[in-house]
Amino acid sequence: MKTTHIIPGDSAAGSLREALRIAGRDDDLLVFQDDLSCGPIADMAPSARAVWRQMDGWDIENSLHAFWLNASKADRLVVWFGRHSAREMAFRLAWAWRMAGRHYHVIDVTGLRVPVRWGNGTDGVIQSAQAVSIIPGNGLATLFGRERNVSANEDILNQRRWEKLMADNAPFRVVTADGLASAPIDHFDALLLAQANSEWKKVAFIIGNALGLSSDPYLQVGDMALHERVINLVEEGALIADGDPSEMRTCQVRLPS
């Protein structure tokens, strides 16, 4: 029986591909490319997500259709995630809801101590992992065989949690001490505005700083979602832009005088 590993996000997928190569495994890998920690989720159909998340060069609807179809056909499923990542945890709950009744395994990396070798060749240890996406492939390779079965009760609980979030249909979902929670559209605005002052700063700088500050103790949001909020803050007059704010590497912003 062939194993198919399920992972949310290209960053985590790259590390898991490396892990499979290091371990010499010929398992399959399916990547869920949507980020369910942001945007409307009342309608989970791929077509509905595609309408909201339009991106040049990516056929979102067909990509999501293919993911769920291939997952339903796989023999043995292993879902990787970390509970301290909003993106990974949102996918974990949505998976339980979408795949209700299907048997699968999980590898939850949350809090694991993982020995790694960094890109510069030095050895180190991740003392308490937050997410799959922050663990290098050589670290993930040490976790094969640690998957566990998911009980029917756990699955039902996760399905109900996702149904509650779907009913909320909030713009964001963020990690809290009690699990994933709905958050309003302006949840990260104060953090973004705190990175600006009266001097011109590139949008990429504002977003980069906000990303760093929103990653401890939980990985809460991605750069694309923050970029959208910067654009909206410019449109609302909370930030002044010199250039097109959709061009994060060239446009500069500052607080109004």
Summarize this structure briefly.
The protein has 257 residues and is an alpha/beta fold. It has nine helices and twelve strands.
Description of the structure:
This protein has nine helices and twelve strands. By secondary structure, it is α/β, with parallel strands linked by helices. It folds into two domains: 3-167, no CATH class; 185-254, Arc Repressor Mutant, subunit A (Orthogonal Bundle). The strands form four sheets. The chain has a five-stranded mixed β-sheet, with helices on both faces. It has a three-stranded antiparallel β-sheet with strand order 10-12-11. It has a two-stranded antiparallel sheet with strand order 5-6. The termini are far apart. Pfam families: DUF1835, DUF3658. It comes from Rhizobium esperanzae. Residues 146-251 form the DUF3658 domain.
Give the secondary structure arrangement, pairings included.
Elements: E1 3-8, H1 10-23, E2 28-32, H2 46-52, H3 60-73, E3 76-81, H4 86-98, E4 105-108, E5 114-117, E6 123-126, H5 137-140, E7 148-149, H6 152-168, E8 172-176, E9 179-183, H7 189-193, E10 201-202, H8 203-213, H9 223-236, E11 240-242, E12 252-254
Parallel strand pairs: 1-2, 1-3, 3-4
Antiparallel strand pairs: 4-7, 5-6, 8-9, 10-12, 11-12
